[in-house]
Please model this.
Amino acid sequence: MREIIFDTETTGFDPKTGDRLVEIGCIEMVNRVLTGRSYHAYFNPERTMPAEAEAVHGLSDAFLADKPLFAAGAQDFLDFIEDSPMVAHNAGFDFNFINHELGLLGLAVVDKSRMVDTVALAKVRHPGAKLSLDALCTRYGIDRSHRTKHGALLDAELLAQVYVELRGGRQIGLELMAEATEIVVETKVLARKDRPFRQPRPHAATEEELVIHAEFLKSVDTPLWGD
Model:
């Protein structure tokens, strides 16, 4: 099964109030294994970057000034994701921004039925625990020492490892086995109908056999059973 693990960076929290998408990072997985294929792009948001947002991801107005508009990369993005399920941490946030940008271009939005939210998965697996990407990396022993700021592609790479753990980690083979259809093997014992009937064999010793056994015991030196 092909899945896209992705993350976005933006100018803020809500596209409806004028915030825009500035970075997308996507990684391809097939059967929960990374294939090495990825999509990564920065976009000029056509607005200034709030200081609060820049403090999170480090993307400044100067850095984004010469980057293309989302319109220039939209088709490449759509070609990469195809119709695969899309996995993100707090996925509703990322879907809202992507679909807002697609809507501005008059393009079909990405159906939210394709959305897989790792926050929701983590809530089920670790109820009451911290659910941030950093907290989950710590829980699963995933190295994030090179992550000084948020970045869409880097966060997607970390999330891919977290996602595999949330889906069972190295126990994936056991999960597939559990999901497989149960096979019941019926065993039949076949009896031969042509076998002749035999009378039960007597097992008690005859008088003659008892006499022979008694004489044999006399030849045994200090038998243990005589104590």
About this structure: Residues 171-187 have pLDDT under 50 and may be disordered. The longest strand covers residues 21-30. The two ends are 76 Å apart (CA to CA).
